[in-house]
Amino acid sequence: MVVAMTGLEKFSYLEDKIYQVIEQYQALKKEKESLEREVASLTQKLGIALAEKDRLEVQLERLYVERDAMKLKVEAMLDALSVIEHEVGQAVRR
User: Fold this and answer.
1) Which residues, 6+ apart, have CB-to-CB distance to 5 below 8 Å?
2) DSSP string for 14-64
3) What is the DSSP letter of 1?
């Protein structure tokens, strides 16, 4: 059954719809602002993380260089010990 709406009922219905739209707009605006704050925070955290990554890459490269230098020194000491061992062995045999 179709009920005919009076002009005042139509106006009241339209008013209700307008208020619903306003409430939805305000809720979406708050959500947008919250998401924008979250994006800004995540962007800042990403910047910090990238800077830390760069710092750690530089430190890692430095540690690789130090490791290689130590390896060369240890190999040189082992070679020197080998030479001394050989000389001591020859001196004992004489």
Assistant:
1) 13
2) HHHHHHHHHHHHHHHHHHHHHHHHHHHHHHHHHHHHHHHHHHHHHHHHHHH
3) -
Q: Whole-model pTM?
A: 0.60
C-alpha dist (Å) from residue 85 to 77, 79, 89? 12, 10, 6
For a pLDDT cut of 90, what percent of the chain falls above it?
A: 78
Token digits of residue 84? 């001394």
Three-state DSSP state, 3: coil
DSSP letter for 2, please: P
Residue 47 identity: G
Euclidean distance between CA atoms 55 and 7, whole angstroms: 71
CA distance 52 to 46: 10
